[in-house]
Write a structure and sequence with these properties.
Mean pLDDT: 88
Bound molecules: adenosine-5'-diphosphate
Structural class: alpha+beta
Largest sheet: 5 strands, antiparallel
Strand order of the largest sheet: 2-1-5-4-3
Number of strands: 17
Helix content: 40-55%
Strand content: 15-25%
Shape: rod-shaped
Low-confidence stretches: 559-563
Number of helices: 14
Radius of gyration: 64 Å
Length: 563
């Protein structure tokens, strides 16, 4: 910019200078010709006086270098000429100034023209004398070009000096103009006060800067939000370049792959050598989407690798790692459960089918029919219990969403259930008692009854002859505790956790003997989860078992069981 300002100023100064010179020459030329004319007229007056008095004698005595003097008779013939031989000169009567001097009243004539005799541009002044003759003086006039040529040397010197001065001044001025612009505070455009002319520009810059700052902060905010989401994602996310180098990785992926944030830029294969990851990445970089399940460390992950395409070319890949350990485990549990259900149902069905076949073939004696029918009935009952338990459990697996929550009295439910089991307890010679005051809690009555029933049923089934079962309901601040305590066979310590698994029995044959399905405690566990209740089991082999279920009085926010 400085150069442009300098050039503009310099050329402007030069232009003004040249125009000034040209004008000066024109004006000077005008002045000079006026001055020459006046001088020539003065000379003419003097010479005319002299010729009037002394005639040619006077003229011959005159010593004039530049001025040409001509004396012309009243008929136009040349009497005398200071620069040419008068005899050889043509008649001058037709010369404009001579004719004018002869004819005009004032006796004076004047003209400017190119003299073919002298081959130069001349100013002629003529005066008529009293005898009618005319004295004419003339002098060569310098033309503008001639004047310019004569002035060229001093002009060049002045021009050179002016150019140098213009250059120095232009340089200094352009610096002075540009310096404040160079020193503009662009961060705070409105703080600059050097040029009023720049104010609209600076205001606009300020406005744009504010807009930019706003947009930048919005972008940053969005970026931060995105980063926060990506970093807090439970799923691992890895973005790869077209050679498998890590471009971005979130915290979960770092944890899953056992990597550090410094891995960005490195190749994924150098960070984790898992074969499934390697294959997924190479598929994705070949443009093939892949979805695999693989074990990484102790957990099972679903690895989804997608190619990132741009302009129909694979530019990279996105790797998503989702922990499916729980899902896989529950799938496993479900598979085992189905196998167990089939197995559990097959046994009573085989028995029923076997007994029925014997009876059908008439291979059973008349007195044995009743015990056989009893066996068939027992097995059918077992199947019914099993099917009912399976249905209950499946229902609980689905979250028991359709069941009604209500204000229920746990003491009333427990008391009623205990009452319904009195006969069973008596048949096993077990004393069954209940204690508790009415206490309202928010729950699903049907499930609570299932809990009390299964716990009491186990306490009776796995009791000893003459043993006892105590059922208690106690209120404790915001909780209500249901306790079922028996004096039964107890549960070995190492199996106390496992008895809540489906179809897990401490003593399989004993359980079957007493009519157990292996699902009672699973139902208790899931029903407790629905109510957000905690189970506490204490048992000692040969002494007895105590199961405490601690219910919150209010309905829990979480309604679904988590396993
Ligand atoms: P089951 O239908 O076989 O009783 P459960 O799920 O109710 O199935 O119980 C699982 C296993 O836990 C039982 O088979 C039994 O071995 C043991 N068990 C449950 N409750 C008691 C208890 N009160 N005393 C001793 N053992 C028990």
């Amino acid at each position: 910019m400085k150069k442009r300002v300098f050039r503009a100023m310099f050329y402007m100064a030069l232009g003004i200078l040249l125009v000034s010179f040209a004008l000066s020459i024109v004006v000077l030329n005008g002045h000079y010709s006026d001055f020459s004319r006046e001088e020539l007229r003065g000379q003419l007056e003097l010479i005319a006086e002299g010729v009037q008095l002394d005639g040619e004698t006077y003229l011959k005595k005159l010593d004039v270098d530049e001025t040409r003097i001509t004396w012309v008779a009243d008929d136009g013939s040349v009497l005398y000429d200071s620069m040419n031989d008068a005899a050889g000169m043509e008649n001058h009567a037709d010369r404009e100034e001579i004719r004018e001097a002869m004819e005009s009243q004032s006796g004076y004539g004047e003209s400017r023209r190119y003299s073919s005799t002298m081959m130069s541009r001349y100013l002629y002044c003529a005066k008529r004398l009293s005898d009618g003759s005319v004295v004419r003086v003339s002098r060569g006039m310098n033309t503008v070009l001639a004047m310019t040529i004569t002035m060229i040397q001093p002009m060049c010197i002045v021009l050179l000096a002016a150019i140098i001065l213009a250059a120095v001044l232009s340089n200094r001025l352009s610096k002075q103009i540009v310096q404040p612009i160079n020193n503009l505070n662009l961060e705070e455009p409105l703080m600059n006060e050097d040029y009023d002319e720049l104010a609209p520009l600076l205001r606009r810059m300020d406005k744009q800067q504010r807009q930019l700052r706003k947009q930048k902060s919005e972008l940053n905010q969005r970026q931060e939000e995105l980063n926060t989401i990506i970093d807090n994602m439970y799923e691992g996310l890895v973005l790869l370049g077209n050679r498998g180098n890590i471009v971005g990785i979130n915290n979960s992926a770092l944890r899953i792959l056992g990597a550090t944030p410094e891995c960005v830029g490195k190749n994924i294969l150098a960070v984790n050598r898992n074969m499934d990851i390697q294959m997924s990445v190479s598929d994705a970089l070949d443009g093939i989407e892949s979805d695999k399940t693989a074990e990484i460390g102790d957990a099972i992950y679903q690895i989804t690798a997608s190619p990132v395409e741009f302009d129909e070319k694979v530019r990279g890949a996105a790797l998503m790692l989702i922990d499916v350990t729980e899902k896989e485990k529950s799938e496993q549990v479900r598979r085992e459960f189905s196998a167990n259900v089939s197995h559990e149902l097959r046994t009573p069905l085989h028995s029923i089918s076997g007994y029925a076949e014997l009876m059908k073939n008439g291979m059973v004696r008349g007195e044995d029919i009743q015990p056989f029918a009893e066996k068939i009935y027992q097995e059918a009952q077992r199947m019914i219990r099993l099917v009912e338990d399976i249905i209950n459990l499946s229902h609980l697996d689905e979250g028991a969403r359709d069941m009604d929550w209500a204000e229920v009295d746990l003491s009333e439910i427990a008391g009623r259930t205990v009452e319904s089991l009195q006969e069973t307890a008596a048949s096993k010679n077990v004393t069954l008692s209940f204690s508790g005051n009415p206490v309202k809690i928010c729950g699903i009555a049907h499930l609570m009854q299932e809990i009390v029933y299964n716990l009491c049923d186990n306490a009776i089934k796995y009791n000893r002859d003459g043993g006892s079962v105590e059922v208690m309901v106690k209120e404790k601040k915001e909780k209500v505790i249901l306790t079922v305590r028996d004096t039964g066979i107890g549960i070995p310590e190492d199996q106390q956790e496992r008895i809540f698994e489906r179809f897990y029995r401490v003593d399989k044959s004993h359980s079957k003997e007493v009519g157990g399905t292996g699902l009672g405690l699973s139902i208790v566990k899931h029903a407790a989860i629905v109510h957000d209740a905690k189970i506490d089991l204490k048992s000692k082999l040969g002494v007895g078992t105590s199961v405490k279920i601690c219910f919150p009085k209010r309905r829990p926010k979480k309604e679904e069981p988590d396993s």
